[in-house]
Structures are given as structure tokens and as C-alpha cells.
Design a protein that fits this description.
Length: about 725
């Protein structure tokens, strides 16, 4: 049994879980061994103990002797999930206190990412502001990190909109929400931190209407870089991401102001601008288009000019022109903000608390857990089963072997590397933090350690769907650079150029996500994450995997994209008929592998058609100059209706293929490239030209086929009326 010394404190009106100033008591052999094995982390843990000790000594809030362990928690149902975590409602039994526990599977992280998580959690624990979600405490067992936070009964502002206001909120509510969030943001900025993931999904609301800025998952200490105030790492969620972050230029806390403006639009309309577009397009639109703005009249709401102006001030592409958070708070827009209770009364009065909402569905795509942890939290099914049975809430001890999903792999979700064995060791370390000893909102946060590990990256990827099964089956997919599974996993290097070129011109997975191979200009970018909307959004085209191509769009799946049954392929034709005797194929093969649009055959159809061709070639006395499988339909082998059917089928295929090509060409209708994208743009144009040529070639062939069909029809007529 794993035990962490820690205390909950009720002084000062709030429950505070903190780790003990005493050495952390670890009864798990794995954990203690791992700490001993890794002197670095031992050092970190020790230094944390020292910090905690000094905090504890300086704080009259902390009781000195109670011991807390996981038995003290009753885990209730899942209340949310993010890109890298499941969030559960729980009760801290000794004080019958409702809490939220975020469970993060450390197996998903590399060692340096775990260090980073450690710092982020420490930061969260140290943050003390009425509008910043604090962390009561955290601890690790096995490969899971448990972060205990206050329970926010209403959930996120995104939840609120999804439940009751899909088209957005009214202006007073927005002002009231945003003012609180901005106060939290100003506090973070003042203390040298960029949040980097400001969005409605990270604004949590309590039943009294108070709004807290949550999820420091990507927040970072400006001090970590050594150049205070400037960062270069590429993180954020695409729709909310500032252009300078996308460009991987130096950026500072003003990036949060951009995201804040996007969040304002999100609250006003129910979704972020460009939310319906795939990430790559979002990036291009954000970089190339005018900044998004607020439409003052929506289907459900009218907004003031002041509101629009406030948003526009945040949405300057030049970060220097955006106001800092404390100045923004003075904007007249916020004058209309009410007290939090107003929200409780007018906005959320009819919204059921999280616990009485239907249990949130996990995303469809999950990675099977291979964990052999001896205990774990329940998963949704277990929670649902318990709820259905009307029994008491399950505790982790009651559901051994059931793990929360490792991660949700689809667009917008975490894509991280499988940790090496060493990182797994470290994942088992025990570490915990106490809340800060500072009690006022101006107290400085403790600077993070100087090293700057890769950040928890937020999406810069294309509309790639990563098939989790590949990852699940690729336990060691990250161990070798050339490993097939690694390729299949399609790790994303979030370098913008690589995304651009890779997605369009590389045969290999268009974007890699490898630490070693994927350092764009020395910057390391790890994962793709997006907001919940994206969870449900299927990309139009999946990422081309090297080893296994994604299926074509559903409506085309039944269609062989290679017309094996044709011998009439034009020389440069794109959709090479593999059975074609005249097809050059070379160009075509190239074209086929361009980008994500791998025009592959349905193998079943192919083989069927092949055998049909083989069988018919010798027999057909009806071959025309441009003989095709249709023309080589063996007389006598097929009834006349069958011949007609075949002809119709061919014509249908022609139309569908034409449509596909038109779609493909349309897909490349991307925004105009800027100067620095000229090369890519030219390549894009070349690709489009090539596709257009292919389309023309195909149309020519279609014409030939039609003529051929006509000839056949005449032949059939002659047969019928000899
Ligand atoms: N303290 C809390 N109290 C109540 N609900 C919470 C709490 N923390 C999180 N949630 C719920 O769980 C959801 C997931 O939270 P989490 O912070 O893991 O992910 P996220 O911020 O939405 O996603 P991501 O990590 O991808 O940005 C939230 O949207 C919210 O609905």
C-alpha cells in the first residue's frame, strides 16, 4: 500500500492538503527503489521536502501530525477528461470534503516531461488567488499522478455552454466571467507566468458563481528560460493560440491576452473562431487572415461596441499592441460585470451540478491500458455500474485492474511518446507539494528550477487522426527512430515548416513527433491537444501513415481508386489503372503518395478486378483500340444485363473519381501564402497543377470510355438483332 504523509488543514476556511514536512513515507517498494535509483529525482524530492518543511514551519495553517493516504479518499464518478487526464469527483473522508482529483497517467510522459509536470503541479500548489484554481496536494502511485483540487460544482464555462447555451452567453454574464478570469490571469502574469491555455474549458465555475482559472497543464514559468518574460516553445490549443506562438517567435504573457480575446468570442458565440476547421487550416488562417473579431449580433445575442472593442484590443497581431492584463481590467467593458452571485442567480440557476449530469463519455478512441498497477481508479463503466446499482461510490480499492484511459487519441488530443524504462521508474516516484505559505494574491510564486524541459505542447498538427490501436500495440514505438511502430504512430514534429511540407510532400508520416528527430530549430514540441469540441470532430482526411494508409472518405471506400479494369490509361494519368497496359505509372505513383491523399486501391476489389481482367482478356473478341475491361467483357460469359450493369458501374466509378479529384483540388484551396511561405506555396501550386492535370487526363479517359461503351452498346444491339 502506498502512503503519503500529508495533511488537510481547515484553518483559514479552506481545506488544504499538503505533504508533510516529514520525509515522504513510501511503502511501495517500486517507489522507494525508483527514488533511490535516480539520484537526480531524489535530489528534487529532497529539495521539495526542504521547501515544504520551510513552508510548514512558517505556516501556522499546517497541522503537524496527521497522516493522509489514499484510503482517505472516496472516488466518485468521472466528471471530466482533458487531453492528458481524467478528472474524478471525490470526497476527502476525514473531513467529508468534496474535492476533484485529476488523475494523470505518467506513463504518457517522458522523464523530462514528468519533471515539468512536477514543476507545474508545484506552481499550481503555490498559486493562491481567489480566481486561480489551487492545488490542495498531489501524490504519485505507480504510474499515476493524483492532483487534488477544489471541486468546482458547475464545471467549466464550456460545460455551461454545451449544456444550456450552445450559441453563447449574454454580455453581462460574459463580462462577469471574464473579469474574474482576467484577475486570475493578471495575478499569474504579475508573478511571471504565462498560462498558455486560456479558454472557456479552463474557466471553472463554482455554484456560487465564482470563476477560477484552471489547468496549468501548459503554464510555464517565464523564469525557466533564463530570459525572463520571453519564451519560444510552441504550446497552446490551435484555435486559441496567438500567432507569435504559432510562428515560434519569441512570445510572452501577451500570448495569453490573445487567447483571452478568443475566449471572449468563444463565450459570445459558443465556439472559438475557426473551430470548425482542421488545425492546419486554423494555423494558416490565424497567421494569414485578419484577426478574428466579434460579430455584434448573433442569432441569440446582441453585443455592445465596447465589448467588440475590448476583444479587438486583445486581438492585435502585434503582441506589443495588446494591453497587459491589469490594464485590460480597466477597460469599460468590465464595468458591467456583476458580482459572482449574479451568475449563480441568472446564469447557472437551472444548470444541474456536475454530479447529476449524465456521466461524461470518454472519447471513443482510447488506448488500451497495459498497466499492471495493483490498484487504480474506476473507469466510466465501473462508475456507471456502481451508479446504476445504486450502491455506494466505488473507491479505487474496489476496482482493481480498472484503469482510466491512458489518453484519447484523435485530433486534438495528447500525443506523447511512450516513456523509456527510465522514465517509468521516475514516474513511480513519490512527490508532493504543499500549498504556498503566502496568503495574499501578490505573493510571488516560487521560481521554477532553471532547466527548461520540453513543454507540454498543444497542437500544431494537421487534421491527423492517430489510430490509437497502433499506439496501443506499439509498446516500444518510441525506442527506435526507424521503428515501424514509430512511423505508424505518426509522431508529430510540430515544426511549422515540417507540418507544411511534410503534410503535402512527404511519403513518410507528414509530421513526426520525435524528440530526437523532431527538434524544430532546437525547439521541442510534443503533443497535440485541443479543446473538447475537437474531440468529437473527425478530420476530413486522416494522416497518411507510412505503413498503413488511412481509408478514403466513406463515400468512396467502396470505390476502387485504381481502375484495374481499364487498359485505356493515358500516359500521364493520375489515377493509374494498375491493370493498364499503357499506363506510365511513374508520375502517377508519385502523385498518389503526395501528402495525405494516398489514392489506394481497395485490395479486395483490385484482386477481383484483376482476375476478371485476366480471365477476360484472351476471350474478348470485342477489344477496341482502347480496350478496357469493359470492352473485354467476354461475350457469352456474361448476360447482356450484366454487361449493362458493368457499363453503368464503370460510369458511376468515373463520376465518383472525378468528384474525388475535384474535392482534392478544392482541398488545396488554402489561404494565400505569405512571403515566408512562398516555397511551400509554390509546391502547393505544383501539386494542384499536377492534380488538375490528372483530373483532365481522367476526364479524357472518361470520354474514351464513354465512346467505348457506345461501341459496345452497338455491338450488343447487333447481337440482339443479328
Ligand atoms: N476542479 C474541478 N472541479 C470540477 N470539474 C473539473 C475540475 N477540474 C476539471 N474539471 C472538469 O474536467 C474537465 C477536464 O479538465 P482538465 O483540466 O483535465 O482538462 P481540460 O483543461 O478541459 O483539457 P486540456 O487538459 O486538454 O486543456 C474540465 O473541462 C471540467 O469539466
Amino acid at each position: 500500500m502506498f502512503t503519503v504523509n500529508g495533511q488537510f488543514d481547515h484553518n483559514g476556511g479552506g481545506d488544504v492538503y499538503s505533504s508533510s514536512p516529514k520525509p515522504i513515507l513510501v511503502n511501495s517498494p517500486t517507489l522507494s527503489t525508483s527514488i533511490l535509483q535516480h539520484s537526480d529525482s531524489k535530489k528534487t524530492v529532497d529539495s521539495l521536502k526542504v521547501n515544504l518543511q520551510s513552508n510548514a514551519e512558517g505556516s501556522a495553517e499546517l497541522p503537524q501530525s496527521s497522516q493522509t493516504n489514499m484510503d482517505d479518499f472516496e472516488i466518485k464518478q468521472p466528471i471530466g477528461y482533458g487531453s492528458s487526464a481524467m478528472v474524478y469527483s471525490a470526497v476527502y473522508l476525514p473531513h467529508n470534503k468534496r474535492v476533484a482529483i485529476k488523475v494523470i497517467d505518467l506513463d504518457m510522459f517522458e522523464r523530462n516531461q514528468i519533471d515539468e509536470l512536477r514543476r507545474e503541479t508545484a506552481l499550481m500548489a503555490l498559486s493562491k488567488h481567489p480566481h486561480v484554481l489551487r492545488v490542495y496536494g498531489s501524490f504519485v502511485h505507480g504510474s499515476k499522478l493524483y492532483i487534488v483540487t477544489p471541486y468546482m460544482a458547475v464545471g467549466s464555462c464550456l460545460d455551461i455552454m454545451k449544456l444550456s447555451f450552445p450559441d453563447g452567453l449574454d454580455e453581462i454574464s460574459i463580462a462577469t466571467i471574464l473579469k474574474q478570469a482576467l484577475e486570475g490571469l493578471a495575478y499569474l502574469h504579475k508573478n511571471g507566468h504565462i498560462h498558455r491555455d486560456v479558454k472557456a474549458g479552463n474557466l471553472l465555475m463554482d455554484e456560487d458563481g465564482s470563476v477560477l482559472l484552471a489547468d496549468f497543464g501548459v503554464s510555464s514559468s517565464l523564469m525557466e528560460t533564463g530570459e525572463r518574460g520571453v519564451r519560444k516553445t510552441f504550446v497552446g490549443t490551435p484555435c486559441w493560440m496567438a500567432p507569435e506562438v504559432m510562428e515560434q517567435a519569441d512570445y510572452d504573457y501577451k500570448a495569453d491576452i490573445w487567447s483571452f480575446g478568443i475566449t471572449a468570442i468563444e463565450l459570445a458565440t459558443g465556439h472559438a473562431p475557426f473551430a470548425k476547421h482542421p488545425p492546419l487550416k486554423v494555423l494558416m488562417m490565424t497567421l494569414n487572415n485578419d484577426p478574428p473579431t466579434l460579430s455584434r449580433e448573433t442569432a441569440t445575442n446582441k453585443f455592445s461596441r465596447t465589448f467588440k472593442e475590448m476583444i479587438d484590443s486583445c486581438m492585435c497581431k502585434d503582441p506589443a499592441k495588446r494591453p497587459p492584463a491589469d490594464k485590460l481590467l480597466l477597460h469599460p467593458f468590465f464595468k458591467q460585470a456583476k458580482k459572482p452571485e449574479w451568475l449563480a442567480k441568472h446564469l447557472i440557476a437551472d444548470i444541474p451540478p456536475i454530479e447529476s449530469r449524465p456521466i461524461k463519455k470518454f472519447p471513443q478512441k482510447q488506448v488500451a491500458s497495459s498497466s499492471t498497477d495493483e490498484w487504480d481508479f474506476n473507469d466510466e463503466a465501473a462508475a456507471a455500474a456502481a451508479a446504476a446499482a445504486g450502491g455506494p461510490s466505488t473507491t479505487y480499492q474496489q476496482i482493481p485492474g480498472l484503469n482510466p484511459p491512458k489518453r484519447h487519441i484523435s485530433f486534438g488530443h495528447v500525443v506523447v511518446r511512450k516513456p523509456s524504462s527510465s522514465s517509468q521508474h521516475h514516474a513511480s516516484e513519490s512527490w508532493s507539494y504543499s500549498p504556498s505559505s503566502f496568503s495574499d494574491s501578490n505573493a510571488p510564486l516560487v521560481p521554477s528550477p532553471p532547466s527548461m524541459p520540453p513543454r507540454k505542447g498543444r497542437a500544431l498538427s494537421d487534421d491527423f487522426l492517430i489510430e490509437e490501436s497502433r499506439i496501443a500495440h506499439s509498446k516500444h514505438y518510441n525506442s527506435h527512430a526507424g521503428d515501424e511502430a514509430t512511423k505508424q504512430k505518426g509522431r508529430f514534429n510540430l515544426n511549422r515548416d515540417r507540418v507544411r511540407h511534410g503534410s503535402l510532400h512527404e511519403k513518410a508520416p507528414s509530421v513526426t513527433f520525435s524528440e530526437e528527430a523532431g527538434k524544430p530549430n532546437g525547439k521541442l514540441l510534443y503533443r497535440t491537444i485541443s479543446h473538447e469540441d475537437n474531440m468529437n470532430r473527425k478530420p476530413r482526411f486522416n494522416n497518411t501513415q507510412q505503413q498503413s494508409s488511412p481509408p478514403p472518405p466513406a463515400h468512396l471506400q467502396a470505390l476502387p481508386l485504381s481502375r484495374n479494369n481499364s487498359n485505356v490509361s493515358s500516359g500521364t494519368t493520375a489515377l493509374t489503372r494498375e491493370g493498364s497496359t499503357h499506363s506510365k505509372g511513374g508520375d502517377m505513383c508519385e502523385s498518389r503518395k503526395i501528402g495525405r491523399f494516398e489514392l489506394t486501391n481497395n485490395s479486395e476489389t483490385t484482386s477481383r478486378q484483376h482476375s476478371y481482367i485476366e480471365g477476360s482478356r484472351d476471350l474478348s473478341p470485342y477489344s477496341t483500340t482502347h480496350s478496357s475491361s469493359s470492352s473485354s467483357l467476354a461475350r457469352g460469359q456474361r448476360s447482356i444485363p450484366a454487361v449493362y450493369n458493368q457499363i453503368n458501374e464503370l460510369l458511376r466509378q468515373n463520376d465518383s473519381q472525378k468528384q474525388l479529384l475535384t474535392e482534392l483540388v478544392g482541398l488545396f484551396d488554402l489561404p494565400r501564402a505569405t512571403a515566408d511561405q512562398t516555397k511551400s506555396h509554390q509546391e502547393l501550386v505544383t501539386t494542384i497543377d499536377s492534380l488538375e492535370q490528372q483530373l483532365q487526363a481522367f476526364q479524357r479517359e472518361n470520354l474514351l470510355l464513354q465512346r467505348e461503351n457506345e461501341t459496345m452498346r452497338k455491338q450488343i444491339d447487333q447481337l440482339k438483332n443479328p
